Amino acid sequence: MKTMARAQDKEEIVRRLRTLRADSTRRWGRMSAHQMICHLSDSFLAVTGQRYASPSSSPLQRTLIKWIALYAPVNWPRGVPTRPEVDQEVGGTPPSDFAADITQLEMLVELVTTRKGCFGPTHPIFGPMSEAAWMRWAYLHMDHHLRQFGC
Q1: How far lies 135's CA from each of 6, 21, 87, 120, 129, in Å?
Q2: pLDDT confidence of residue 134
Q3: Does residue 92 sit in helix, strand or coil?
Q4: Which residues make Cβ contacts (< 8 Å) with residue 22, sequence separation at least 6?
Q5: Other CB atoms within 10 A of residue 2 CB
Q6: Angle formed at CA 50 by CA 38 and CA 140, multiple of 5 degrees
Q7: Residues 82-102: what's their mean pLDDT?
Q8: pTM of the shown model
Q9: Which long-range contacts (CB under 8 A, 24 or more apart) does 52-56 make?
Q10: What is the spatial distance between Cα 81 and Cα 61, in angstroms, rounded to a whole number?
Q11: Is 29 left (phi over 0), alpha (psi -120 to 50) or beta?
């Protein structure tokens, strides 16, 4: 299983991120490539406690759905709604300068992969998560959105 805790998996994600262009065409969803970069940054800011994301969780989401999302050998489904605070069409950070926004996301990736304990205790949907689960989530979330743009 790939995880941001493994150097080679992190390097793969960063390499793929660097192939993204502002005009990259989405394969699904509504976000532009630039909005997606801001969404990923907002998500990292939220799960590290630097941005608020409203909780929306149920026992099913905190157990079965979390296990499937993190450990089942399937790609995440398309079109799953996100929290409004990290939705670029609702309350997420609006894109500004593409290069600067990529740099910020790379800095956040470095933060979450090098500073142990920087994740909050709970995910807004999946609830309590271990450090290993957070690192798996970080890889899968970025992989999902990079695949969205063919990266």
Answers
A1: 9, 25, 22, 12, 10
A2: 96
A3: coil
A4: 32, 33, 34, 98
A5: 15
A6: 55
A7: 92
A8: 0.94
A9: 52/85, 53/83, 53/85, 53/86, 53/124, 54/83, 54/84, 54/85, 54/124, 55/122, 55/124, 55/125, 56/83, 56/124, 56/125
A10: 13
A11: left
Residue 16, phi then psi, degrees to nearest 5: -65, -40
- Residue-level pLDDT at 117: 86
Q: How confident is the model at residue 62 (pLDDT cuts 50, 70, 90)?
A: confident
Q: What are phi and psi of 46, to 5 degrees?
A: -70, -45
- How many other CB atoms sit within 10 Å of the CB of residue 59? 9
More confident residue, 60 or 3: 3
> Across residues 21-49, what is the average pLDDT?
96
147, 16 Cβ separation under 8 angstroms:
no
pLDDT band, residue 74 (cuts 50/70/90): very high
In whole angstroms, what is the distance from residue 140 CA to residue 116 CA?
19
What are the backbone dihedrals phi and psi of residue 95, each rounded to the nearest 5 degrees, phi first? -60, 145
Helix (H) or strand (E) holding 106: helix 98-114
Q: Tell me what the mean pLDDT of segment 133-148 comes to.
A: 97
The domain locations on the chain are 7-17+31-148
